[in-house]
Structures are given as C-alpha cells and as structure tokens.
Sequence to fold (168 residues):
Amino acid sequence: NLFESGRVREARAEHESLIAHAERLQQPLYLHFADAWRAKWDETAGSFDEAIALAERSQQLALDAGMPYAQSNFDGQLFALERDRGRLRGLAGTVRERLGDAAALPVWRAGLVLAMLDDDAASHARAREEFAALTRDDAAAVPHDLFWLGAICLLAEACGRLGAVEQA
Fold:
C-alpha cells in the first residue's frame, strides 16, 4: 500500500523490516515475499537481470511454501519485466498458452491487450475488442479485488496507446 500510494521511502523501510523478520524466521513464505519485493525494487531501478534472478528465487520459495498461486505470481513478475523492457511483441500467445484459464482474470486480460497492441494488425484489432469489453460501463468487468489496481494501470496504459479519450 505504501508503494502504491507513492510513499516509497516508507515502503523501503517496511521492506527492510520484512527482510529482517524473514531472515530471522527462515520461513519460505516470508522469504518469498521479501525476494518478490527485492525483485520489484530492482525492476524499478532498471536492474532487470537481477530482478529476474530474484523472481526465480522467489518463485521457488513460494513453491516450497505451498502457495497455490506461485506460478501465476511468477508469470506476473516476468510479464511486468518484459513490459518494462519493451519486449511484449509476440508474447500474447505464449501468455495465453501458459496461463490457460487464469488468462481470463481481468488483470491478465488487460496485460494481453498491451501485448496484442505490440503485435500485427490482426492482434491490434483483437486488442481493441478486448479493451472495449474491459472498459465498458466504467470498467465494470474489472472487480475491485487484489488485482484491480494492476488491471486499471494496464488499461490506462492501453488508453494512451489507443488514444481512447472517452475510456480514460
């Protein structure tokens, strides 16, 4: 919450506290969260190779902790890293194939819109259709859940790329 509200200094301090507790307890779940945030900090600093290595380590810790959403979480981290590196072209099909039913989540649908916008004209047309479906009725298709902010941010980025003033 601190990070999302722009209180970065406080978020970093809380992260340091999390790291200290995780290292003291040596519980895979807490170590996973600590590494996932380390990866996010590296991503925001442009240290992509380090972020990927931390994301991989974080995923293994999540699997060790028995987290049911470990793979989806990891896929989300990789997707964000690829987006930030400008490497979404050709990724939409891979994402759909890898996620299966999980690709129906609005946050993934919004991410796929961006990936399709980087592809060919046919994909661009499908991106516009999906974008319209997600933003219809003030984005009613996007539930106010854990993934809402991420989905809305991705849709806002798509608004800019599509010049969708009304939906913005």
Summary: The chain has eight helices and no strands. The mean pLDDT is 90. The CA atoms of residues 89 and 118 lie 5 Å apart.
